[in-house]
């Protein structure tokens, strides 16, 4: 096997040569030429070999840079989820169930950004241009300066974007794009990965913001390789139930703002309308105090949100009782039931348990543990929690109640909506000036005895 030729580099100017000499012919410095050590010991066809690249510029952590400029579209809920507006050169992935309203939301956003002065191109790979125009007509957006195209060829799309140089490009959807140099069908793993990589790299180099629409699987994950979520700067999920008018846009990843931020929208006949006070909307249909109904004061991103937990406990005719959950983690429900039985002596054997978060909201934070326990006990004992009371707190396996973060913000939101009392863990930092009557509980046994007179 022939040996790779040796190369030599001048430490002063970086000039390369095939032989060593005492003086650099490029800069004239003496004793600055050294032999290059190969970057990799493997063969050149399978590794980096001995060929060297260009040294990159390094900075220290104290280097100050101005924050990236942002463009607000005027939809406060969308701007909130994006972290304050659209960043130039960013790549955003939007996922959601079919028919949930992704195309409607992005068409409205495209019109808002275009009216704000950003040259915008909307590329549809699933619908014809006439269908998009019909949707724009229903939404009253025909006068927006959005340029439209229906295409799936990745090479043609990128050529057009390079020629037009818009500030924002929306690709609907990434699963329909195909690259002619990849030997697989559109929607396959290799095609989705290639299209996402090419569009993201193109966005960074040209300073164009790209929004990619992604399909989801039955499990609610972005279809195709999960590597797509790592390529982009922001991942947004559009959530909601077909039977509810509420739609929630949730940021699960954001390099330019807080993750887990939510924006709430309401589906109307004229598209998606912003909900500036989601707590009031989620509680608007709440009836008089009823067993199994408890209001939870939660935090979604930086926003306090009040939602209603509804529980139903009924005798089960089955040998294995049902445990049905909507909007919360079923595994955490099983843990709460086990703690109630082991620490408080309250069994749920032989009883069907149904738990629902009103309004189609999905709650994931552990601070909802105490509200769930209160709803379950209220339904089991047929005793209603006072209507003007909010509940929050995390339950440990020992039955102790642990404090949660941002307690003051939760209480302020509850006071703003007319609540007068709260039940919280004993060590919570409630602050002052909330105006609420706060009952602090140390453990779950004390909570059961104080509220339901048992335990």
From TrEMBL:
Stored CDD domains: RadA_SMS_N
Pfam families on file: AAA_25, ChlI, Zn_ribbon_LapB
Domain RecA family profile: 67-216
Entry keyword annotation includes Transferase: no
Stretches the record annotates as Lon-protease-like: 352-455
Keywords per UniProt: ATP-binding, DNA damage, DNA repair, DNA-binding, Hydrolase, Metal-binding, Nucleotide-binding, Stress response, Zinc, Zinc-finger
Residues reported to bind ATP: 96-103
Motif RadA KNRFG motif boundaries: 253-257
Family annotation (PROSITE patterns): RECA_2 (PS50162)
Family: Belongs to the RecA family. RadA subfamily.
Swiss-Prot/TrEMBL domain comment: The middle region has homology to RecA with ATPase motifs including the RadA KNRFG motif, while the C-terminus is homologous to Lon protease.
Summary of the function given for this chain in its UniProt record: Plays a role in repairing double-strand DNA breaks, probably involving stabilizing or processing branched DNA or blocked replication forks. DNA-dependent ATPase involved in processing of recombination intermediates, plays a role in repairing DNA breaks. Stimulates the branch migration of RecA-mediated strand transfer reactions, allowing the 3' invading strand to extend heteroduplex DNA faster. Binds ssDNA in the presence of ADP but not other nucleotides, has ATPase activity that is stimulated by ssDNA and various branched DNA structures, but inhibited by SSB. Does not have RecA's homology-searching function.
PANTHER family with a match to the protein in the record: DNA REPAIR PROTEIN RADA (PTHR32472), DNA REPAIR PROTEIN RADA-LIKE PROTEIN (PTHR32472:SF10)
Protein name per the record: DNA repair protein RadA
Species this protein is from: Aliiroseovarius zhejiangensis
Gene from which the chain derives: radA
């Amino acid at each position: 096997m022939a040996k790779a030729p040796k190369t030599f580099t001048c430490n002063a100017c970086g000039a390369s040569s095939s032989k060593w000499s005492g003086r650099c012919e490029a800069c004239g410095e003496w004793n600055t030429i050294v032999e290059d050590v190969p970057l990799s010991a493997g063969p050149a066809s399978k590794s980096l070999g001995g060929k060297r690249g260009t040294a990159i510029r390094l900075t220290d952590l104290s280097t100050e840079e101005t924050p990236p400029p942002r463009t607000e579209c005027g939809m406060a809920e969308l701007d909130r989820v994006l972290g304050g507006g659209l960043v130039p050169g960013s790549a955003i992935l939007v996922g959601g169930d079919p028919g949930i309203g992704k195309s409607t939301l992005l068409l409205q956003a495209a019109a808002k950004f275009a009216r704000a002065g950003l040259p915008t191109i909307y590329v549809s790979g699933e619908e014809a241009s006439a269908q998009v125009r019909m949707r724009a007509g229903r939404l009253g957006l025909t006068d927006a300066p959005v340029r439209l195209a229906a295409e799936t060829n990745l090479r043609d799309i990128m050529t057009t974007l390079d020629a037009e140089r818009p500030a924002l490009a929306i690709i609907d959807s990434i699963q329909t794009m195909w690259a002619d140099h990849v030997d697989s069908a559109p929607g396959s793993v290799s095609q989705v990965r290639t299209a996402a990589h090419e569009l993201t790299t193109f966005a960074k180099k040209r300073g164009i913001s790209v929004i990619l629409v992604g399909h989801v699987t039955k499990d609610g994950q972005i279809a195709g390789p999960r590597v797509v979520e790592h390529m982009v700067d922001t991942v947004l999920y559009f959530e909601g139930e077909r039977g509810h008018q509420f739609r929630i846009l949730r940021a699960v990843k954001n390099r330019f703002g807080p993750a887990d931020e939510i924006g709430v929208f309401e589906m109307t006949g004229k598209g998606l309308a912003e909900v500036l006070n989601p707590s009031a909307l989620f509680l608007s249909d709440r009836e008089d105090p009823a067993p199994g109904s408890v209001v939870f004061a939660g935090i979604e991103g930086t926003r306090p949100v009040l939602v209603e937990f509804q529980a139903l406990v009924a005798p089960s005719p089955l040998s294995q009782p049902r445990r049905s959950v909507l909007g919360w983690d079923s595994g955490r429900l099983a843990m709460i039931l086990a703690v109630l039985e082991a620490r408080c002596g309250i069994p749920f054997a032989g009883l069907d348990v149904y738990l629902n978060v009103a309004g189609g909201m999905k709650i994931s934070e552990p601070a909802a543990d105490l509200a769930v326990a209160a709803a379950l006990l209220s339904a089991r004992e047929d005793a209603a929690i006072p209507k003007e009371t909010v509940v929050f707190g995390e339950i440990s396996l020992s039955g102790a109640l642990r404090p949660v973060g941002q307690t003051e913000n939760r209480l302020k939101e509850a006071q703003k909506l007319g609540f007068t009392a709260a039940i919280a863990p004993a060590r919570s930092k409630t602050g002052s000036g909330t105006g609420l009557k706060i009952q602090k509980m140390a453990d779950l046994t004390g909570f059961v005895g104080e509220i339901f007179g048992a335990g």
